[in-house]
Design a protein that fits this description.
Blueprint (H helix, E strand, L loop, with lengths): L1 E12 L2 E13 L4 E6 L5 H8 L7 E6 L2 E2 L5 H10 L1 E4 L11 H11 L4 H14 L15 H13 L5 E5 L7 H17 L3 E5 L3 H4 L4 E6 L2 E3 L1
Parallel strand pairs: 3-8, 3-9, 6-7, 7-8
Antiparallel strand pairs: 1-2, 1-4, 4-5, 9-10
The protein binds adenosine-5'-triphosphate.
GO biological process, one term: protein localization to outer membrane
Pfam family, one: ABC_tran
Protein name: ABC transporter ATP-binding protein
Length: 221
């Protein structure tokens, strides 16, 4: 499903170049749930951004079902991001002025679905994540766990093949974190979804199929 080869990423700073990823090779099978753990600054977020085509590597390739995603540019790359990958961020990144329903509809509207199509899609998903009674609430009127559920529903609205979650429970207490992982479990069972989840919690990572350990821009075996 996902194959990354020789990924390097460096950033230019006023102190010179910072090497953040140093030769990452990985292969993730369809339907697999992979955890990524590592110390702060190890490069986990950078890796997730590259796997989701939110950023480009300095060198190396990422293939989804054999397709080299960085060979795509412009509208085809935007289409890949919108349809193939769902992204859940640590700080949910919901739009504060919009309701839960509108936030979940947003990727569908960006993909030029009509309101008539997007409303039932988003309503169904909010029901699946246990928020059928909170459709009209704005993010500020929801708890942290509820906000993250909305973000998960938004990530799923275009029926992606892959869900990338960067510290989806980083801001939550341990009980709520466990609930979010249970929800990810249910979603995984209900859909044939490949998942990559960054977490600081070895316990939560241990509930996934496989755990990758990142150290200083490399994957430790
Ligand atoms: N745009 C950038 N410019 C310069 N340096 C950057 C940039 N983005 C990330 N870095 C550096 O790359 C390193 C890895 O960052 P990254 O966010 O990928 O780590 P992480 O493993 O996700 O850390 P955390 O667990 O704290 O979120 C850090 O040292 C960070 O300062």
């Amino acid at each position: 499903m996902i194959e990354a080869q020789g990924l390097n990423k460096s950033f230019g700073t006023i102190d010179g170049r910072v090497e953040v990823l140093r030769g990452i090779d990985l292969r993730i099978e369809r339907g697999e749930r992979v955890g990524v753990v590592g110390t702060s600054g190890a490069g986990k977020t950078t890796l997730m951004h590259i796997l989701g085509a939110l950023d480009r590597p300095t060198s190396g390739t990422v293939r989804f079902d054999g397709e080299d995603i960085f060979a795509l540019k412009g509208a085809p790359l935007d289409g890949f991001r919108n349809r193939t990958v769902g992204f859940v961020f640590q700080f949910h990144q919901l739009l504060p002025e919009f309701t839960a329903l509108e936030n979940v509809m947003m990727p569908a509207l960006v993909a030029r679905k009509s309101f008539r199509e997007a409303i039932p899609m988003a309503t169904k998903l909010l029901g699946e994540v246990g928020l059928g009674h909170r459709l009209k609430h704005k993010p500020g009127q929801l708890s942290g766990g509820e906000q993250q559920r909305v973000a998960i529903a938004r990530a799923l609205v275009m029926s992606p093949r892959v869900l990338l979650a960067d510290e989806p429970t980083g801001n939550l207490d341990s009980g709520t974190s466990g609930d979010i992982f249970r929800l990810l479990d249910e979603i995984h069972q209900a859909r044939e979804l490949t998942m990559v989840v960054v977490t600081h919690s070895e316990t939560l990572a241990g509930r996934l199929d496989r755990v990758l350990h990142m150290v200083d821009g490399r994957l430790a075996s």
